[in-house]
Design brief:
Helix content: 25-40%
Bound molecules: beta-D-glucopyranose
Order of helices and strands: EEEHEEEEHEEEEHEHEHEEHEHEHHEHE
Length: about 350
């Protein structure tokens, strides 16, 4: 079968190649790939900046934002042939640490977790893949191709759960949420926050085009330019750019008692910015900075419920490009008009 693979740590090694059928030891459920979303992490892996091949292998099958159709459900009983499923990304560490032991693999403490398509386990960018039944999440069939948005939604559901957990350390009535960055994660954050009934603002560099349109279509307010120029102090900021200057401005701008949740993985420094000044702001306003990564089963459950509540037409506008597996190179290239690019392996009846 065909798969998109990469040699982690070596830029420019991604290719579409023939690989053996998935090993039965990878899980009792056999799935035919429908689509796989491409995210910044995949781009980083393809650029040789992140990612690990399975032990004893030099190449990794890419892809962690899956959507597939069950070909053989195995003996589990919970799934049927033809069901649409998405694969959970992370597996607990083998030790296990206390968090993995209680199913909170997203909070793994020893770093020995593994992740499909990212860290030591093959991903979902292959024509067929296998999965353990307990890591296959059934998707509402009426979502159709939109089920490919489930994985990024889980990341946001977990992040917002963290925000609420932190916020509840004191009397807290958040009214305004600012999302920085109008990529897929930012837009899904805006969508999920909107479902919670708060006032949602989204800030991005883009001045015109699809991103402002999508934000306004949600009933949220769009801003371009600097966080510092906003005329209000947000109660919550969900930071989805990973850009140093945006993070620094967010620390300054956050309202008292506020929570800044960092979801972007950036890199590099920020010259001229004093960490102690940021710390002083956080101290004097009782603010919290919380980092959030990945998601556990509870978040997968909540995200699939949230995804079905979001407007289908709005969600379908997030998928701006569908590429065939042979065009994976184009799929891994980001253009300013892209929100979510997916690699489509097989067709599916469109959502109702
Ligand atoms: C994925 C997460 C993963 C993280 C770190 C993200 O792109 O969505 O599931 O935990 O990368 O590897």
């Amino acid at each position: 079968m065909r798969a998109i693979t990469v040699e982690p740590g070596k830029p420019g090694t991604a290719r579409l190649e023939d690989v053996p059928e998935p090993d039965a030891r990878e899980g009792a459920v056999l799935v035919e790939a429908v689509a796989v979303g491409v995210c910044g992490t995949d781009v980083e892996i393809a650029e040789g900046k992140y990612g690990w091949a399975p032990p004893g292998h030099s190449r990794l099958v890419l892809g962690h934002e899956s959507l597939g159709r069950v070909v053989d459900p195995g003996p589990s009983g919970g799934l049927r042939k033809g069901d649409l499923v998405v694969g959970i990304v992370r597996r607990p560490d083998p030790v296990p640490c206390p968090n993995c032991a209680v199913g909170e693999w997203d909070m793994c403490r020893n770093g020995q977790y593994t992740e499909r398509g990212i860290k030591q386990i093959h991903g979902f960018m292959s024509e067929r893949w296998r999965i353990e039944p307990e890591y296959a999440v059934k998707v509402d069939p009426s979502l159709g191709i939109l089920g490919v948005l489930l994985e990024p939604t889980t990341v946001i559901v977990k992040a917002l759960e963290q925000v609420v957990a932190v916020g509840q350390r004191c009397f807290w009535e958040p009214k305004t949420v600012l999302v920085t960055g109008a990529g897929p994660i930012g837009l899904l954050a805006a969508g999920v926050a909107h479902l919670a009934g708060v006032e949602v603002h989204v800030l991005d560099r883009a001045e015109t085009g699809l991103k402002p349109e999508l934000v306004r279509a949600l009933g949220a307010t769009y801003h371009s330019g600097s966080v510092m120029d906003l005329e209000f102090e947000p109660d919550v900021i969900v930071e989805c750019t990973g850009a140093g200057s945006v993070i620094a401005d967010s620390i300054q701008k956050l309202g008292a008692g506020g929570v800044l949740c960092l979801t972007g993985v950036g890199g590099g420094g920020l010259s001229g910015y004093a960490v102690a000044d940021a710390a002083a702001k956080a101290v004097l306003k009782n603010n919290v900075l919380v980092g959030s990564v990945n998601a556990n089963k509870r978040h997968w459950y909540k995200a699939s419920e949230g995804l079905t509540r979001l407007d289908r037409r709005w969600l379908s506008r997030l998928i701006t490009r569908r590429e065939r597996p042979e065009n994976f190179k184009q799929a891994l290239e980001r253009s300013p008009d892209d929100v979510k690019v997916v690699i489509q392996f097989s067709t599916i009846l469109e959502q109702a």
